């Protein structure tokens, strides 16, 4: 990190230390980082829970369900089924992204020892 980067971090954190909110700049950075990481973990867990509640199953089950429905589309193509599958595929994409983001934040939490 450049001197400018260090100076700017100190400039941001120093008022928090001066007001007695944190013991030191290092403690402030650690606590603020921990808070942010935990909020991200909660955010992505919430998204996963919402998807599970919406579809009444876990992602792995939903993926199999979606594959079966897609095969059904080849034998019984209807506009309604096609639209429903497209909507489900959007959800599957969002669900997968949420899972991957959660794994990333959990990995970061472990990596920085929070």
Provide a concise account of the structure shown.
The chain is mainly α.
Please characterize this protein's 3D structure:
- This protein is an all-alpha fold.
- The protein has one domain.
- The protein has helices at 3-18, 25-55, 59-75, 79-111.
- α2 runs antiparallel to α4 (79-111) and α3 (59-75) runs antiparallel to α4 (79-111).
- The longest helix has 33 residues, at 79-111.
- The radius of gyration is 22 Å and the shape is rod-shaped.
Mean pLDDT: 90
Number of strands: 0
Backbone structural class: mainly alpha
Largest sheet: none
- Poorly predicted ranges: none
In total, the number of domains comes to: 1
End-to-end distance, in Å? 22 Å
Share of helical residues: over 70%
Taking all Cα atoms into account, the compactness measure Rg is: 22 Å
The fraction of residues assigned to DSSP E strands is under 5%
What sequence of helices (H) and strands (E) makes up the elements?
A: HHHH
- Overall geometry comes to rod-shaped
Note the main attributes of this structure.
114 residues, 4 helices
Helices and strands, with pairings:
Layout (H helix, E strand, L loop, with lengths): L2 H16 L6 H31 L3 H17 L3 H33 L3
